[in-house]
Design brief:
The protein folds into 4 domains: about 15-165, no CATH class; about 175-280, Cytochrome Bc1 Complex, Chain D, domain 2; about 300-400, Cytochrome Bc1 Complex, Chain D, domain 2 (Orthogonal Bundle); about 420-495, no CATH class. About 40% of the residues lie in helices and about 5% in strands. It has 22 helices and 4 strands. Helix 1 packs across helix 8 (about 175-185), helix 10 (about 235-240) packs across helix 12 and helix 21 (about 460-480) packs antiparallel against helix 22 (about 480-495).
């Protein structure tokens, strides 16, 4: 279900931007930078328990395995002491390290890309004053294939769009300041926005709640299920300030740390701006149930699993997309009397076939209850006419009969899916002539140029992703294991010129 995340009035935009920058101290860039670091809560992630500030070493448990936060003190041997200001900007704004390799999105550059240049410059000035600490950290402790950092080029192409925060010229300065803090510095969406199976936040579900390790970051979207919907601005501001009387809910879990290390240290005006933004931002559209429609008891949970894990490819309306995922709305195969076909698909996955992309196995991703919920949801949604009769016991029993995901599917899961309309038979045929092993870069560039002539409406980024995906499929069929597929995919990526100049090529002591 998943593949491999404004122009306004010039005067008004400039005014709002100036207000954003002016809330922090301006006279001393180091002092301003210290305030930016507090608002961005850098120390919480880059300082382990009983560790030195910013020296890293804190283990983050992600759905894909453990990552350890790096040392960002100006130590030259183990920190960022040899980085330039441009290296620092590339990390925050582009998600790229000093060697041109992509950073794992556990570092919230998806939010930090919106940080203004003025705040970034101040933060850089402050980081130069931090006490250097010699502390070597092995950041990447993920299992294969997630430990291959260069594979994140495809992830970034699909799920990450760099760009600065754009104020809304129709809103007040306070609202825009709050929006900037929530979206950029405080990066609230990193925890409170649900993610798809590839770990990318779902943009149209912003702030609607998400699991984070063993905790749940609640819905703060101001929508129908939002925990703050009934709160006043004053109560929300008091919560963020750490003033929790008997009538207020105290922060707990990761939020307690965010409040303690960040929001309690913000200026009162910034706290009020955050509260104003969260309480007045447009609420998400409420999901209404038709008068003649009786949802099954766990319909809400099934819809939530679908939206988090499946809608990115199949579409929230179940219409699917050729080359990416099948159409589910009106799909008779989903409404059969027995649900075994859909259970097999969810547990085993589907290998790529023709123009259709692969679908991963959710056997080790979803619980029996979650598989039952989402199966019931797609059987009954969009007037499919099925019966919501799948139980967790059915799923548990069917696991015994379902086959393990095939080796070909495991290899193909390293390849992104792309819409069929982005390709044609000529493109596919030309890619097959490249072969495996050492790649003729001139030939690849020639294919890219010809492709650009035939598909001028696609962006350069989309064309590169489409060529990578198609070539990767050929590699998944031809090569014996995931390691060889990833290495071949990276060779092709370098031939396309996706990586930055000077980045380490596969097989040349690439750092994790």
């Amino acid at each position: 279900m998943q593949g491999l995340g404004f122009a306004g009035l010039i005067v008004a935009s400039v005014t709002a931007t100036c207000v954003i920058a002016s809330a922090a101290p301006k006279d001393d860039p180091v002092e301003q930078g210290a305030y930016v670091a507090t608002a961005a809560d850098c120390q919480s992630c880059h300082t382990k328990t009983d560790g030195k500030p910013f020296a890293g070493g804190l283990t983050l448990q992600t759905p894909f395995g453990p990552l350890v936060t790096p040392n960002i003190t100006p130590d030259k041997a183990t920190g960022i002491g040899n980085w330039t200001r441009d290296d620092f900007a590339n990390a925050l704004h582009r998600g790229i390290d000093d060697e041109g390799m992509p950073l794992y999105p556990a570092m919230p550059y998806v939010s930090y890309t919106k940080i203004t240049d003025a705040d970034l410059n101040a933060l850089w000035a402050y980081m130069q004053t931090v006490t250097p600490v010699a502390n070597k950290v092995e950041v990447n402790r993920l299992p294969f294939p997630f430990d291959v950092r260069a594979s994140l080029f495809a992830w970034q192409a699909l799920f990450f769009k760099p760009g600065r925060f754009q104020p809304d010229p129709t809103k007040s300065a306070e609202y825009n300041r709050g929006a900037y803090l929530v979206q950029a510095l405080e990066h609230c969406g990193s925890c409170h926005t649900p993610r798809n199976a590839m770990g990318a936040t779902i943009a149209d579900k912003a702030l609607e709640g998400s699991e984070i390790q063993e905790w749940y970051a609640p819905d703060i979207s101001n929508g129908q299920d939002s925990i703050i919907r009934s709160w006043s601005k004053e109560r929300l501001a008091s919560f963020l300030e750490g003033h929790n009387g008997r009538s207020l809910m105290p922060p707990f879990g990761p939020m307690a740390e965010a409040v303690h290390n960040s929001t309690t240290k913000l200026k009162p005006g910034d706290i009020e701006a955050i509260a104003d933004y969260l309480k007045t931002r447009p609420a998400p559209a409420e999901t209404a149930v038709a008068a003649n429609e009786e949802p099954f008891p766990r319909e809400k949970f099934g819809r939530a699993v679908f939206e988090n894990q499946c809608a990115n490819c199949h579409g929230a309306d179940g219409q699917g997309q050729a080359g990416v995922a099948a159409k589910l709305a009106g799909n008779e195969a989903l409404a059969t009397k027995k649900p075994y076909n859909i259970l097999s698909v969810l547990i085993e996955g589907i290998e790529p076939h023709g123009i259709w992309g692969e679908m991963p196995s959710f056997a080790n991703v979803l619980s029996n209850q979650e598989i039952a919920d989402v199966a019931n949801y797609v059987r009954t949604a969009w007037d499919n006419g099925g019966v919501a009769n799948v139980t967790p016991n059915d799923v548990g029993a069917w696991r015994q009969f379902a086959s393990a995901p095939s080796a070909e599917l495991e290899r193909a899961m390293t390849c992104p899916n792309v819409p069929a309309a982005w390709l044609d038979d000529d493109v596919r045929a030309s890619l097959k002539t490249i072969g495996m092993g050492s790649i003729d870069e001139a030939k690849v560039r020639e294919i890219l140029d010809q492709y650009a002539e035939r598909f001028p409406n696609l962006s350069d980024e989309d064309r590169m992703v489409a060529l990578m995906a198609t070539y990767c499929r050929d590699a998944a069929v031809s090569l014996p294991n995931k390691t060889s597929v990833i290495r071949q995919q990276l060779e092709f990526a370098y031939a396309l010129g996706i990586s930055d100049p000077g980045a380490t090529k596969p097989g040349r002591s690439a750092k994790p």
